[in-house]
Amino acid sequence: MTCEQIEPARWRLSFTGPEAGFLIQVLARLGKQYQENVARMPPALRAYWQGTITRGGVAGKDDLKEAQEVLAEARAELRAERLALVENWMREFELAEERDPWKVEISSAERDEFAATLNDRRMLLALELGITEEDMEADPGRISNEVRRAGIFEIDVLGHFILVMLGPQIYRP
Amino acid sequence: MLIPIRRDIENVAAVYDRRIFSPTPTGLKSFSPGLAPQRLPWVNPEATNPERVESYLNQFAGDMASTPTGLGRSLCLLRVAALPQPWAECSQPLQGRPSLGDRRLPFSSAAKPDTEALPDIDVEEKLKEAFERGWSVIVWNDPVNLMDYVVFVFKTVLKMNEKEASRHMWEVHQKGKSVVARETREKSELIVHRLRGFGLNATLEQA
Prior knowledge:
The structure holds 2 protein chains of 2 kinds. Chain A is an alpha+beta fold.
């Protein structure tokens, strides 16, 4: 994957065939996650999507409930926005005449939003699989559980995508 | 602990083929953990002095300690007379404004009760805002977010410069959390929402 600046606030992303295929699979799974009912999610995921407001480290006080609800509402709206974004990306891929490499031109704002969307997938995977600090530091080749190993692999590759995308601002090899 | 990117995931095609899980032909390991402390070469973790927490708090504390009386600038705004004491000057935020000289305390010998009063709205608003900034935005550590990404988010959302953003990132990484903003309730809610939108584990807490 490469990210090339074509105008002051415009970027061209280029994915190889396997990278594009990987990305589309990720987006498809992420789209499903955005559509899930938060109330039915496991506690860790629910907390991720609702946010927390506390006073003195204690949440749920009556006078903070309103603020908590506002935050949860805003988070719900964000999920809807991100779902639309994911669907747009998948549509772009479907309509693309050339997919190896697959090239997409986006604005800086779209790029930042897409990076945040990919990071959502990383965070959700980690919460779902209970990924720990030790897991992230370990050699994935030594993780025997296939699902966890694939999850960590996906988290790592998406991290690479994000840093390449934001590269001119943050990536300093 | 926030994590650095694994440096050898450069060729996703190779990774996608899962060849990365096997030793490479050169015998190099696929992944190279332990790069975290060196991930940001322009940041010296020692120099960031993690014991010094939140710049916002420091800034506030700095304000409070910046007057000889220790009352702080905000509180000294209440004193509007043009006092003769030399130390009075240091805390006169309205210094230089033409109407300042007209403001006298009623009991002052130089008081001019008939003089039109300077609108206190700015002062009151500043005071109100200062006292309402009792909501802290806390960013918590997690095992997944990338160090560079976190710095990017702090710069984007909180408009921090690189040094400040890096310092807060290291504080999160090493201490488990960092208070990145202390604002009014509404502003803090907005910041938390934006930080969470980028996937950071941010919470709002009333002091």
